[in-house]
Amino acid sequence: xxxxxxxxxxxxxxxxxLATPALAEDTTTTTPARAEAAIHLTCHEVTVDDSKPAxxxxxxxxxxxxxxxxxxxxxxxxxxxxxxxxxxxTSFTRKDVKPGTxxxxxxxxxxxxxxxxxxxRERVVVERDGRTAR
Length: 134
Description:
This protein is mostly beta strands. The chain is built from 1 helix and 9 strands. It has one helix at residues 7-23, and strands at 41-48, 52-59, 67-76, 79-87, 91-95, 100-109, 115-118, 122-126, 132-133. Strands 3, 4, 6, 7, 8 and 9 form a 6-stranded antiparallel sheet that branches. It is elongated. The model is unreliable at 1-18 and 26-35 (pLDDT under 50).
């Protein structure tokens, strides 16, 4: 009997595979090793631009960081996606969010643009009727 792998499983495996390098700790950085979750991250749902839902995240500044990499992933049913943004700010807002499970992670980047510290993972669930669960 021949078994087939559902397309959703393959898609999720591809997303995880693509996100892994962005989340992996780089051991070649010129900055000394830091604690695994040295940056405190908090995320919550907010309303912006005429009552449209959004998720706002803030984190502690990391001493010596040249910038930050924000990794945002979302899962809606059997599909998912992720976005990677680079910023020098200590906050990030993802606008016009739809119902789903959102995960956020922040990495502090050194002058060589390699990760020197990371945050805890924050999870926000946006319910279909507009309610937010954590």
